[in-house]
Amino acid sequence: MNKNEFLFQLEGALLRLSKSDRDDILLDYEEHFRAGAEKGLSEEEVAASLGEPASIAAQYLENLPADAKGAPAQMPESEEVTAIALPELTDGAAETKHEAPVRENVNSENTAQPVQHISGGRKFANVVFWFGAVLTIIVLIYCWIAMLGCVIGFFAGAAALVGCSFFFIANNFAMFIGFILIGAGLVCLGAMFIIALKYAMRGLKKLIGVFKHVSNKIMGRA
Amino acid sequence: MSIQFKKGVLELCILSMLSRNDHYGYDVAFKLSQSIDLADGSVYPVLRRLKQDGCVTSYLEEASGGPPRKYYAITKQGEELLDDLTGEWRTLVGRVNGIIENGGLE
Fold first, then answer.
1. For residue B93, what are the β-bridge partners?
2. What pTM was estimated for this model as a whole?
3. What is the DSSP string of A163-211?
4. I need a labelling partner for A91 at 20 to 30 A (CA). Which of A29, A73, B46, B55 fits?
5. SS3 state of residue A143
6. Best of B32, B52, B60 to disrupt the A interface by mutation (most A CBs within 10 Å)?
7. Cross-chain residue pair A29–B44, CB shorter than 8 Å
8. What is the ipTM of this complex?
9. In percent, how much of chain A has pLDDT > 70?
């Protein structure tokens, strides 16, 4: 086969990779053909010595797990940077995290492409963000009772102490009572928190299951 | 030689070549395929893997009367890997030779 046939077959066998990876690999082989021609070899001879495009592609695809994980970041080229579209959960801070430093090979026009790779760090940030947001919402929903109890207890104690300083009559004893009330308020707080936690845990466990399932789908490699 | 064995040997040979001199892709592929019977095409995936692991870098250099050529160079990490692989190779060869000579009996 000639050069174009070879490159065409090789490209076709590498469709699983991102365009920038694919182009980078094909460049190597174009150069190889060029160098072979300089040495006086025909395209057929060069193609024959290279071997089958399919088996070459298989060797690149063997390396794929490392690519997908965002292989050791010694070289900038090892990370793939493609942003996930999570419009409902990304705010300004997360947005800037996704616009990572541009590498020499990143084709920034390809944002329309489906997500191929996310570097490990960015994935983790995604996970933490999701988790924090969900956790906060659960706590707020399940714990409003607890929060109310805490607030009441705390205010009662504080009011007692303030009241003591106003009615400065039997000061020591009154202050003592005031502090006890504050203490009681804090104990209420603790108790409510523990109770609320029990409810929150239940809801949390359920949501963690859902979240894991969803994030597996998004990350694309369950 | 089996494919798997060749691949391990390929890393060793590529790094060895590059530790002496920078080479461009075709050079590495061509020289290796002359000594070891393999397809030139299997050299580039290994080169790419080495590059991803930080053992090798590449740069472009102007070639006379043509587009710039991609040269490969070994890195410090690559030198370290080369040392490890060379050591493993020598140990393996030594042991295998011992088995061949003694029939596995010490």
1. none
2. 0.50
3. HHHHS-SSHHHHHHHHHHHHHHHHHHHHHHHHHHHHHHHHHHHHHHHHH
4. A73
5. coil
6. B52
7. yes
8. 0.84
9. 41
More confident residue, A84 or A205: A205
A47-79 pLDDT per residue, tens? 998 989 999 999 898 866 544 444 443 333 333
- Cβ-nearest to A50 among B24, B41, B70: B41
The Cα B41–Cα A32 span in angstroms is 9
Task: Say yes or no for a CB contact (<8 Å) between A51 and B40.
Answer: yes
Q: How many helices (H) and strands (E) does chain B have?
A: 4, 3
Q: How far B41 CA lies from chain A's nearest CA (Å)?
A: 4
Q: Whose structure tokens read 């009330």? A: A181
Distance from B22 to chain A by nearest Cα, in Å? 16
Residue A76 or residue A200, greater confidence: A200
Residues of chain A contacting residue B32, judged by C-beta atoms under 8 Å apart: none
- Is there a contact between B10 and B50 (Cβ–Cβ < 8 Å)? no
Dump pLDDT digits (tens) for A131-179: 766 766 766 676 676 667 666 666 766 666 666 555 554 556 666 666 6
Chain A partners within 8 Å of B39 (Cβ): 49-52, 55-56
Contact A128, A211 (CB under 8 A): no
- Residue pair B15/B82 in contact (Cβ under 8 Å)? The answer is yes
**Residue B78 three-state SS:** helix
Burial A175-207 (b: 16+ CB within 10 A, else e): eeebeebbeebeebbeebbeebeebbeebbeee
Per-residue pLDDT tens over the stretch B31-84? 888 887 777 888 999 999 999 999 999 998 887 777 888 899 999 999 999 999
